[in-house]
Write a structure and sequence with these properties.
DNA-binding, disordered C terminus, 5 helices, ArsR-like_HTH (chains A, B), Arc Repressor Mutant, subunit A, transcription (chains A, B), homodimer, globular, 106 residues
Chain lengths: 106, 106
DNA sequence: CAAACATATTAGTATTAGCTAATGTAACGA
DNA sequence: TCGTTACATTAGCTAATACTAATATGTTTG
């Protein structure tokens, strides 16, 4: 049985608790991007995106590497990438489930 | 490529964004429990736990069934259970990673 | 049917998080 | 070296969230 500290876990999950952050993750899931590329991608605000990137880094979900005046961000590793994929898979399944069986519940 | 609506996704992930909710999920991951069992388990407040259970149900993460005056909650299905496990796995890996390579970053 | 128990709901408050705008820092290029 | 570009940081405001206490609903049991 895997023993994970709940506070560490929450810190990690905090990264996934905001729409902008999740969109950033989707945006850089396949390949790394600079901050400004991400800003363009999401049609967002530079300061805002930068703050979320700092957050995602703190949560352990992404890593950044500086190259000259650019900073490239990418999701940390394949396992995190797999987790992101799995969330989509589970979500699809849950949606189907909810649609089929629980539509009488609101 | 899996296409998932971002707002639906956020609604789902919202369930994982709070410590109490994650603790509830951990508590009922293996077997269903009544509200009061969960309250005891977490040493929590009845109203609070009940609200979080409603939230988790709305997020699609858990389902409840009434049996007399008791309501039993359980995680929705095996796929959700797998996701919870995977989070722990990824987290372990990330922690190791952070400890080894990024300890110079705070 | 009344009391007791299990759970849900509501209202009010406190805490947290996210956003924007402004400013700071560092690297590059003319 | 000065201006420009890329990114980070800070401050202030607003909105969302979570908590507690009180009350309501529904079920069982005597």
């Amino acid at each position: 049985m895997l023993q994970v500290d709940i506070d560490t876990k929450m810190k990690f999950l905090h990264g996934l608790s905001n729409k902008t952050r999740v969109q950033i993750l989707e945006s850089i899931k396949e390949d790394e991007k600079t901050v400004s590329q991400i800003v363009q991608d999401l049609n967002g605000n530079q300061s805002n995106i930068s703050q979320h990137l700092t957050c995602l880094k703190g949560c352990g979900l992404v890593v950044g590497r500086q190259d000259g005046k650019y900073v490239y961000y990418r999701v940390r590793n394949q396992l995190v990438r797999d987790l992101l994929t799995m969330i989509d898979v589970v979500l699809e399944d849950v949606e189907k489930d909810v649609a089929c069986c629980d539509s009488h519940i609101d």
